[in-house]
Amino acid sequence: MAKLEILENKKLVLKNVLKKELNGVQFEVLDEEINKFGLLLDKLSAQTFGPLVMKNGGVNISEDGEMTMDYDLFVQAHDYKQYKGSFDVVDCMEVPNCVYVRFEGSPDDLQYAHSKLDLHFYENEIESTEEIYSIIVEETENHTVVDIFRPVKVL
């Protein structure tokens, strides 16, 4: 098994972006919402490039204890502005000053990459913005490659 190497001061840059906000999504329907995003891209025949990027904006807990999450989905596309009726469009998105790790292995072990990032933030007394950007580079049933960016909170 390869070691998880943590790198600091990395920048995530996306250009010609189609963005879909998923606010207050219950965890059990997240995959369904991601599939809907992909199906809409297919239906519109959007010419995308690069992998799917997901931003986890955090967990919300209601007064009655229901947990929901805020996610944003991003994909880069040629002629992206023509889809502004279906998606938010962003010319250039930059997320500077991130701590980064690449995970390669079984999807069941992905939590180790997140735990290593948590430990790095703790040991180095760094604060995160609590956002997590996950870039699905490769995904099969038994193997996944994910780049994870966590922005550092600027004080």
Chain-wise SSE layout:
Elements: E1 7-25, H1 30-43, E2 48-61, E3 67-77, E4 88-105, H2 111-123, E5 132-139, E6 144-151
Antiparallel strand pairs: 1-3, 1-4, 2-3, 2-5, 4-6, 5-6
Q: What is the CATH topology descriptor? A: Multidrug-efflux Transporter 1 Regulator Bmrr, Chain A
Number of helices: 2
Order of strands across the main sheet:
1-3-2-5-6-4
Computed over alpha carbons, the radius of gyration is: 16 Å
Q: What's the number of structural domains?
A: 1
Question: What's the CATH H-level superfamily name?
Answer: Regulatory factor, effector binding domain
Coarse shape: globular
Helix % is 10-25%
What does this protein structure show overall?
With 155 residues, the protein is α+β, with helices and mostly antiparallel strands. It is built from 2 helices and 6 strands. It has a 6-stranded antiparallel β-barrel with strand order 1-3-2-5-6-4.
Task: State the main characteristics.
globular; six-stranded antiparallel β-barrel; 155 residues; single chain; alpha+beta; 17% helix; 50% strand; Multidrug-efflux Transporter 1 Regulator Bmrr, Chain A
Give a quick summary of the entry:
The protein is an alpha+beta fold and 155 residues long. The protein is 17% helix and 50% strand. The protein has helices spanning 30-43, 111-123; strands at 7-25, 48-61, 67-77, 88-105, 132-139, 144-151.
